[in-house]
Amino acid sequence: MPGMTEQPRLLEGLDPEQRQAVVAPRGPVCVLAGAGTGKTRTITHRIAYLVQRGLVAPQQVLAVTFTARAAGEMRTRLRALGGAGVQAQTFHAAAFRQLRYFWPRVHETQMWQLTDNKFRLVMQAANKLGLSTEREDVRDLAGEIEWAKSSLIGPEQYPAAAAAAGRETPVLPEQLSKAFAAYEQLKNRAQMLDFDDLLLHIAAILDDQPEIAEEFRGRYRSFVVDEYQDVNPLQQRVLDSWVGNRDDLTVVGDANQTIYSFAGASPKWLIGFPRKYPEATVVRLERDYRSTPQVVGLANQVIGAARERPAGTRLKLVGQRPHGPRPDFAEYDDETDEAEAIARKIAQLAKRGVALSEIAVLFRVNAQSEVYEKALSDAEIPYQVRGGERFFARAEVRQAMATLRTAIAHGADEEDLPATVRSVLREVGLTDEPPAGGAARERWESLIALVELAEELTAAEPDAGLARYVAELDARAESQHPPTVEGVTLASLHAAKGLEWDAVFLVGLVEGTLPIMHADTDAAVEEERRLLYVGVTRAREHLYLSWALARAGGRRYRRRSRFLYSLVPDEHPAALPNKVKQRELMSRPKAAKPHCRICNAALTGTMDIKLGRCADCPSDVDEDLLSQLKAWRSERARQLKVPAYVVFTDATLTALAEQRPLDASAMVGISGIGASKLQKFGSDVLALIQGDRRDTR
Ligand code: ATP
Ligand code: MG
């Protein structure tokens, strides 16, 4: 049997537990394990193994994951293992493909268009209801509608469901419910679908149309889900429809990496899997193959400090790689300093032989990217933003692809594919040596990445010609799977999930950014902590954590993230100055554990925490300011047609009148004030407080 001789290859390089999951018979399999333990490797090997043994046909397997890049990577890994033909896609891409196929059979029309401007529809809905159409407000509305749809909640159920889930609603729940209904109506009238509709429709078709369900289940027989901890109710519903009453389902995940619960995801399906399928093969992995013991140690510390963790997720990772450098912590005066210093460190790493494509700068919000783009450009270091999903949209790449197509039409020489590609791309400006830097360098890096892809393809398929190569490019463009471009990756922590680099810089680690300002519940803060854990565990060897005390050129009022307090070694220089600064900043408390501003006792009660002092400690409230704030609140509440407490609760107003924050950052230090409130009311409140100060001077 030809397969028999190759079989050991797939089991080599796996530890006994990984192997157990790989060779488990078709049926339910669950791998619960921490970052870097080889979950993704295990499932790709399992798929390839089942295919190789003839236990399933490649076309019968559907593997899903959460980002286009992760899906692309899985396809590449599968192809290398002999699993070409297996579908590895995101939930949305898989649903889109299925819906395109089945829709005409059910509705006897062409499938509705996927909306390219959901924002506009939400804005129209808001406008119709007389709600604010400011960009930020519309975005909040859209986010809330998305949460509802992914949680399988319709407009009518929204108010009750939002209350039950403790959502901080951007407008009154009843208003949101109406806006949601109006949005659906506008969208249906325009015969448009949004992303969530793809999933809703395919689930409905499979549930309501037995014939289609039968056809579907005849075609797909084996399902695999990576990063299962981040599945939301809607995706789970689709998965249930796919699987039907069968049980050929392999799931892998790490509850400690749940980072999408703000959008409705929950690890409960992952954790509950062994209970749902008592006969499942359940495997736990603890060896971390990705990172050095130094990085693993820090990861264990970060997640070990979590306030609460789902039962059965207390995994301790054990690093398998040789020792490496200790994680580096650094504090800077402002963001520009931070970015410039990091550009210098990157240049040093590169000098020591670390490839730029093996370096990532990860941040909490995309807005943080800009200062790094500038610093890297100035240092003439090529980079790509967010994993380069938009690679195929770049002008030089589009131009290159057009030129390659023309070359095929002219029957260009196909003796040696990489050489042919190289010579064709000379026409669009590819030179032998890279230009010094800037835009020209970035262009060059895109083109050379295309040449390298031709080399990769030739290695995998020695007979591949230009036409095959261009087909590969098309397939990659469609599934947003860019080739590796030599350059530093700039990405958000969310986008970095599942990926790894030799060197990782976690930047901008300050209060208000990580945890993010609007994380104002314990659960939200814990999700931010998991994001840091995801970030730390992306690094193979070099890990740098940094923060800056001021925005570019601003006042130094920022504080390093509370998650770092116990991580920065005490003897470390970065820990010392900051401690002193913290003491100076005692008048603006909001540390991990809140303390009374008057007597410094630890605070536990919600009201005490809100006030920032013990209820029985003397109040230093500015009564004048408090009454001004109250008057302002009634006025605003009247304008917005909401009850006063929706603007600010009494406790928050009292805290404002006591602490008299003088800038936005100090304001968000007050419990009950998150990003959206700051946005809406920040300037009003600051004006009142500043006015009050002038009066009393
Ligand atoms: P994450 O939770 O971050 O998605 P993961 O559990 O999916 O991590 P993988 O990406 O599959 O982890 O593996 C992490 C790294 O360890 C990869 O580089 C992989 O090739 C390597 N690896 C996994 N298992 C082994 C093994 N048994 N021997 C050597 N290397 C391994
Ligand atoms: Mg993985």
From TrEMBL:
GO cellular component entries: cytosol; DNA helicase complex
UniProt-listed GO biological process terms: recombinational repair
Domain UvrD-like helicase C-terminal: 293-541
Alphabetical keyword list: ATP-binding, Helicase, Hydrolase, Isomerase, Nucleotide-binding
UniProt cross-references to Pfam families, sorted A to Z: HRDC (PF00570), UvrD-helicase (PF00580), UvrD_C (PF13361)
Binding site for ATP: A33, G34, A35, G36, T37, G38, K39, T40
UniProt KW Transcription keyword: no
Reaction equation(s) it catalyzes: Couples ATP hydrolysis with the unwinding of duplex DNA by translocating in the 3'-5' direction; ATP + H2O = ADP + phosphate + H(+)
Family annotation (PROSITE patterns): HRDC, UVRD_HELICASE_ATP_BIND, UVRD_HELICASE_CTER
UniProt EC number: 5.6.2.4
Gene3D superfamilies: 1.10.10.160, HRDC domain, P-loop containing nucleotide triphosphate hydrolases
Gene Ontology MF terms: 3'-5' DNA helicase activity; ATP binding; ATP hydrolysis activity; DNA binding
Catalytic class of the enzyme: isomerase
The HRDC domain, residue ranges: 619-697
Domain (UvrD-like helicase ATP-binding) ranges: 12-292
Origin superkingdom: Bacteria
Family membership: Belongs to the helicase family. UvrD subfamily.
Name used for this protein in its record: DNA 3'-5' helicase
